[in-house]
Amino acid sequence: MATSNSSAASSSPSPATTSHTSSQPPSSEVEGLLSRLIHAGMGPISSIAKIIEKLLAINPGQRLYIVEQLFSKILGRETPIDDREVPFERLMNVLAALPREVSDKFTSRLIATFWQDLQHPTRYWPGVPFRSADGSNNSHIYPHMGASNTSYARSVTGSYQQTYSELPDPRALFRDLMERPTSQPFEPHPTGINSLLFCLAGLITHDLFRSDPANPAINLTTHYADLSPVYGVNQAEQNQVRTFQQGSLLPDTFADPRLQFQIPGIVAMVILFSRNHNYIARQLLSDAVNVAENYRFTHINGHDSPELSPQRTDELVFQTARLINCACYANLILHEYLRTILGLSSDTDFTLNPLMSPPAADPSSGNMVSLEFGYIYRWHSALSKEDAKWLDKFQISRRYHELRTRSQNASGQGQDRTTIFADILEDLHYTREEFEHGPVCMGIHRNPKSHAFNNIDLINILKGSMESVASRMGAKKVPTELAEVEVQGIRGARKVGLCTLNEFRRFFNLKEYRSYEEMLSGPGVAADPDVVKALEKHYGPNGIDRVELYPGVVIEGTKTDGLSLPYTTSRAILSDAVNLLRNDRFYTDGLNRHDLTVWGYNYVNDPSNAAITHGSVFRQIVLNALPEWDSVIGDPEFAEKLLRTPFRVPNQES
């Protein structure tokens, strides 16, 4: 039998000797002893008694080596363990025979190993499988983290505080540093990125940032990439876009009223995801999917069990369709958006995937978007020539300002927002009845019977955005029509106390700028002397450390590759994108065949078209939502090219 701890201790070296003994390189005798222990199998303890007697007879260093090797063989983490080759009980037999000071050391390691086997806290909560309407309960530890109507985070606490009297006039800053001069020729994007890429960026921005006008430190939307512009930021908004029948949304609906004042390409992108939701809902209730999922959407537990109520079916289908739709959204961000930002070819499968493992993501803490990133994502300078003309034609800034002013003053006057909206857009022939059928997309109208937009109109909007080259970014590139928006942006940044541009760069371990010329220049592009003079006028001859984050991130020099973003922005958004997805449990833990269904998981990953799409689901979304795509475009080869490289103008190499 194995010797007890007490008897073993009496015949072993003294504790002082043992406690300082380290393992020694093995001899052939030691290796043979280790091999016999490993291969002793599951026999009775008596079968290894002689092996343990020999183990106790060798010197402490060699004995320690054997125990460490046995421990690694049974509980190591480097490679999967064959628990039939070396039974765990064999290790316990050996530890029981060792001196107490040695066995305690390994017992402590055992306890640590077993504790680390499970997550602390547990990440997987199958009882809460769906996204809440307001973004709460994404984190089980901090259930309100990232919910709508909660505070933004602050990434950088600025140490260079300036009084308002010391700060330049916001209108003068826009005029001298940001405004796109109409007297100079339009500068196209250097890598041929089209307007549609920035339409997706606009959707992401509205998804993540919706500041409270009364308190811009509060975010009225959720802090997650969860398509809240489509689904709403609370239960009341979500209820307004649902039919409550078979999990579907109202035709071509979206919940965020701000989008009605955005360029048509952004609205078209939102409608694609609205239609994608309804396509997914129909598939989930089809026999092909529902039967394969053991009737999970129509019956309690299989075909022979009682049927679910129509309300329960509607809820299950709606919530599951939203999970799949959001997964499609994340797929587009990963496989098209990030790939374009990084300047990767469209025919590569590689992307910077924040969800890959290792390192394993841990979304337990949830996500909070920060004040700074609300300004990092203001990319108005990239608006194409065509989009800038559209803004001017429809007088978007004036109409939006009028809507906000009249809405704020309408309290007690018996006018609701829909009535005000109809008045403001009366000259564009939008009626109150049309507003009651859903939000508008300026320039096109809904079908009065189906309440949906015309497919041909939507295809032409998407095609126009794909063929419209974006603007080069940097100083003096923001269209004049957005002057009021930018002025309010500068004032808002000051109100919440944003840091300076150099302080933000220091946070990301980027070299601080030492001059205006350094800040404004880029590869092959010298600093504009007029902008340098304007900066000297507004911030002082040596005021580089006074330049505010906003408008600093708008006017600094740009890269020449990929999205050709301003330098600070190009670094910061990668950190934001990685954290945005990795801090969301529905992307780290929820992208599986159970939660999405097998069909939904395959739809997101599009395995049948992998050679064509290189992982992107965008092509399939467009073809499902707009089946006339090929016929409207006319040329099948050109129609396919637009979908394979959706974010580059067609005549550009991808």
TrEMBL record:
Keywords: Dioxygenase, Heme, Iron, Metal-binding, Oxidoreductase. It comes from the Eukaryota. Residues 1-28 have a biased composition (Low complexity). Heme b binds at residue 380. GO terms for molecular function: dioxygenase activity; heme binding; metal ion binding; peroxidase activity. One of its GO terms (biological process) is fatty acid metabolic process. The keyword Zinc does not apply. PROSITE patterns: PEROXIDASE_3. Residues 1-30 are annotated as: Disordered. This is Heme peroxidase. It comes from Podila verticillata NRRL 6337.
